[in-house]
């Protein structure tokens, strides 16, 4: 049983070992610049902006941990402690390496996409607060604006038959950071084999049969995946710098 007299500590794990091929050739997606600063730095700052987060673990490309550490050392993240560890060949393996690097005493774990550099601190705090209130897994999410069709897949470019239209009111677009009770997330990674249908860490927890709850996400927590996303992120960042003094 947790010791009620001990403060609850929160850490964030940021897997940043992917190449990000949809943004085109060049540096890994997490190291692409946004407003002159690598997206990874923005993502770490977004986690460090929460007073509840005492540690951020960045999971770097397998052969790039020293370079990522040097890059992050060029920036300030306030009082938040920072660790950099080499990642694995898959996202699940990389997240697990980040979990293995956590010290004793961490109770709540956030897993955050490096490609979501502009998530507001209020969203981060809402996820943490909901885990601390007893939820084993929490995801921020938004209602869908578009109607969604289920289709029978065909080779790219071919017309695909529609097989159903899910009720939009029952669907949510999931964001990060996703928050977890540490032991629940570790059990999920130990139990669920990669490729068994889970595409995020909350999905791993779902496979355990543990409850996952949703809290409101934010429009600015979108994922920078394609060149148009980067254009939108630059516009959001420019507005923040002009109105909020964001650096």
TrEMBL record:
Residues in coiled coil: none
GO molecular function annotations of the record: 2-C-methyl-D-erythritol 4-phosphate cytidylyltransferase activity
Protein's GO biological process: isopentenyl diphosphate biosynthetic process, methylerythritol 4-phosphate pathway
Catalytic activity: 2-C-methyl-D-erythritol 4-phosphate + CTP + H(+) = 4-CDP-2-C-methyl-D-erythritol + diphosphate
Keyword Transferase annotated: yes
Site annotation Positions MEP for the nucleophilic attack: residues: 168, 223
Record keyword Membrane present: no
Database matches in CDD domains: CDP-ME_synthetase
Name of one Pfam family that matches: IspD
The protein's Enzyme Commission number: 2.7.7.60
Broad class of enzyme this protein falls into: transferase
Keywords of this entry: Isoprene biosynthesis, Nucleotidyltransferase, Transferase
Pathway terms, separated by semicolons: Isoprenoid biosynthesis; isopentenyl diphosphate biosynthesis via DXP pathway; isopentenyl diphosphate from 1-deoxy-D-xylulose 5-phosphate: step 2/6
Record function comment: Catalyzes the formation of 4-diphosphocytidyl-2-C-methyl-D-erythritol from CTP and 2-C-methyl-D-erythritol 4-phosphate (MEP).
Record-linked PANTHER family: 2-C-METHYL-D-ERYTHRITOL 4-PHOSPHATE CYTIDYLYLTRANSFERASE, CHLOROPLASTIC
Family: Belongs to the IspD/TarI cytidylyltransferase family. IspD subfamily.
Designated name of the protein: 2-C-methyl-D-erythritol 4-phosphate cytidylyltransferase
Organism: Streptomyces benahoarensis
